[in-house]
Amino acid sequence: MISLSRRLLAEGLGSLLLAATVVGSGVMAEHLSQGNGAVALLANTGATVAVLATLIALLGPVSGAHFNPAVSAIEAVRGRLPARTALAYCAVQVLGCCAGALLAHAMFQLPFIQASTHVRTGASQWLSEGVATCGLLLVVLGHRRSEDAPWMIAAWIGAAYWFTASTSFANPAITMARSLTNTFSGIRPVDVPGFIASQAVGAGAALCIARVLWPGSGRADAGNANALYSVKRSA
Predict the structure, then answer these.
(1) CA distance 64 to 74
(2) Per-residue pLDDT tens for 1-42?
(3) What is the pTM of this model?
(4) What's the Cα-to-Cα distance from 196 to each of 57, 146, 150, 189, rounded to whole Å?
(5) Which residues of 27-64 are buried (b: 16+ CB within 10 A; e: fewer)?
(6) Which of 54, 104, 193, 198 reaches 20 to 30 Å from 179, CA-CA?
(7) What domains can you pick out in the chain, each with its CATH number?
(8) Can you tell me whether residue 65 is helix, strand or coil?
């Protein structure tokens, strides 16, 4: 059995590198795109998809590679992760993502502490976050083989960058971290609660849908450290 400290290290490291990639690639894309928003978003998407697939494949066998409080919370609701462990996961995910945003600032010689002024609010944005998070959790809950998790999850996020109005944050920890950067990927701190609430609704909807689509598995062993990375045939 993998120790909790090793799992938390994996979750914190993965969250840090994921956020650093999202923020850092946004900075680089904005610098190089010469004002072309489509090119900047394409570059930001490509980097995020690549690092997400890599981190899930690398760290999945250690912690399950959640990097997302919505995922950890749903796994706790399903009995696949003890509640205390889920809370610890969520804490290191938030801390890791926030540290990743600051790391990106340091790498690009930007002011270390920032607050975003990028407006992201309104019904279309909230609906988009609900849809993006629901789809992500359906992939997490429904993928059949552990080796499919990296590409399926990364592919969903990459697609949702483009078909949602919010560009698919789908992650409360990333959302909080992105409020700390006044760059391409930022979100105003005042807009964060609306995004997180929408993500929670989307995650809950995914759990309900998954129970209909893939019924009958029952509760998994709550001591299974790699629940997310194991075969998902039902919820």
Answers:
(1) 13
(2) 899 999 999 999 999 999 999 999 999 999 999 899 999 999
(3) 0.92
(4) 26, 27, 24, 11
(5) bbbbeebeeeeeebbebbbebbbebbbbbbbebbebbb
(6) 54
(7) 4-213 (1.20.1080.10)
(8) coil
**How long a stretch of residues is the chain?**
235
pLDDT digit string (tens) for 127-156? 999 999 999 999 999 998 999 999 999 999
Residues of the chain with pLDDT > 70: what percent?
Answer: 91
Which CA distances in Å does 231 have to 8, 40, 60?
A: 22, 36, 12
Token reading at 8 = 């938390």
Residues 6+ apart with CB under 8 A from 193: none
Taking the C-alpha atoms of residue 169 and residue 161, their distance in angstroms, rounded to an integer, is 8
Given a contact cutoff of 8 angstroms between Cβ atoms, the answer to whether 198 and 65 are in contact is: no
Q: Which two tokens stand for residue 126?
A: 């909230």
